[in-house]
Amino acid sequence: MKKIKISTILVVIIFIILVSLSGYLSLRYLDRIASDFMTSTMLKINKQQAKDDVVLVMIDEKSIAKIPWSWPRTLYGDIFEYLQDKCGVTAVIQDNVVFVPDTYNPEADEKFFAQLPELTKLISAYDLYDTDNTTGDLLPEKNLPLFNEKSRVNIEDRRTVKYPSIYKGIFKLPKTYLENVPILAHYKIPRDNDGKIRKYMPVIEYEHKLYPSQALYGFAMKTGIYNYVLNDYSLCSADDECKALNIPIYATDNDDFSDNPDPGIYNTIKWYTPNSKSYSHKYYSAIDVLESKAAVENGEEPLLGEKEFKDKIVIISTNAPSGKLESVHPTNILKKHAFADMLATEIDNMLNNEFWQDKYATLTVFLTIFFWFLAIVPTWNKSLRTTFKAILVLGILYYILYYYLFTHNFEIAFATPIVFTSVFAVLKKAYRLITNDEESEKIKNIMSKYISQDVMNNVLDNMESAKVGGYKSEATIMFVDIRDFTSISENLSAQEVTGLLNRYFSTLEPIITKHKGLINKYIGDAVMVIFGQPVRDEKHALHAVQCADEILKAIHKLKEELTEEGKPAISIGVGINTGDVFVGNVGTENRMEYTVIGDTVNLASRIQGHNHVYRTEFLISDNTYKQVRDYVDVVKLSNVTIKGKSKPIDIYEVLRLAE
């Protein structure tokens, strides 16, 4: 008894650990769904508007309606020049990468590249090659010093834990462009595993050097802070001891516990209330900027000027669906969120030093243990209902805390502590049932070797049925018999007969169980099997036929094995009938047997016996055939005289199961 209890406890503990681990992984997705819902709902309720320090200039439908795509790069140069020289912007961010020269407008490219050294407030973009991209021309290593000169932001790495960078190179930029562009910063915004964007990479690591994002570079130009420190859990401004900027970050190493598909250094974006289907920041049409530049040159009043752009960071991007310039991605607040608006949001977060605090893993484990302790320990010897009442009360208090922290930019796990504790409560109840029923389980395991497991389970589930009596129901009965077994056994010793029968029955039993059959009894070398009772099965006739087909194939294989071993080979006959039977317990109150009786059973036995007459292996009745006719190929044996039947009946030889 003591050994059984120890093993039971070990099994329960291992089960709890496995359920907890799998539950934690799956509940991360549930928590994420809840977090997305809360984020979207709170933005609608609180109307957290974006500041006007960052604005967008978009090449939109209006722009390409007046100047069809694609635009020569001189038009970009005109916009950059106007915003810098006439509007007094702090910085201009171009969020697309100049990968190759424009072969259709080489003169425009030449003019644009020559203009770049004068655009000192322009932050251009570059992209990096990673393990998921095996093609593309890469920046030559000899050009890396020149590339590094384009970033004046210094980031000191003080991390104690570092993960290997996935980046293998920088995508090649046109030579003249690289020489003349004033500033370069990465423009990557990562997606989570579900395809949505929730995070940003303020810095990336390449060749053991940290490079700033366009957002961080824009912040640096706005504040004049160009020195930063990267710690294990934060990226902050070094010049003022982290007062102006302190970004909570976390790094991942591409494991299954991370929502991020790639290793990297991330922070969670704090969104603002959208003012349209794709934006939360104010945006202007690029064509209006170009026309404003032309107006100033003609001495006219511009539509857009210093009033709209002075001392602001301006992001230039495209978003014109009809021109195939739709630059949008799904986020947890919008289905089609403009890429430029995400970048603007990150810059806004930096300028306001306001970030989403996400201490998910460590805090989730602590809260889960704490919640479990409060709910389970006081109710350890109480009923499951009492435990769930405690979980309900604590759950209400927990969600009040969740709401309070959420409104203060701090998120905790939404579902994991409560669901984990509820699962544990159920496991605790299961453990008690296991330990209380150990002795009865031991008896059950022993007795199941003498009677069917299905019958045993049926009796245990329906204690009132453990008495003489029964009911009428439809079932399918199958008889399997070894041909000429008497002749075979006469030439064998008792031990050899027993060994042959055990081998034969061992072949049948797993096949019968597989097809939902119940071995009702062994009658010498014959086996009586019930389909459809006591466990209800709507397709009992079909399952019986499929079972018989598989048994015949298995016996043919066994016959070959016995022949190779020099032992007597065996052949069998199968008979199946479907109809109404009496199902229940037959006998006395002190000694009873679960069985089925009736004419259906007798007919199944006699049909099996006709395999000897017709030298067949597999016969079924007309009643069975009517239920499986679409599944079998048969030969009809008409007007067969069956003992006990006043009129001849039709039976069928099953040749094969139909495709």
Structure description:
- The chain has 659 residues and is an alpha/beta fold.
- Strand 2 (91-97), helix 4 (106-115) and strand 3 (122-126) form a beta-alpha-beta unit.
- Helix 3 crosses helix 8 (286-297).
- The protein is elongated, with a radius of gyration of 39 Å.
- The protein starts with a helix and ends with a strand.
Which terms summarize this structure?
six-stranded parallel β-sheet; 42% helix; alpha/beta; single chain; 659 residues; Alpha-Beta Plaits; 3 domains; eight-stranded mixed β-sheet
Give a quick precis of the structure.
The protein is an alpha/beta fold. Strands 22, 23, 24, 25, 26, 27, 28 and 29 form an eight-stranded mixed sheet that branches. It has a six-stranded parallel sheet with strand order 7-3-2-17-1-16, with helices on both faces. The protein has a four-stranded mixed sheet with strand order 5-11-12-13, with no helix packed on it. The radius of gyration is 39 Å and the shape is elongated.
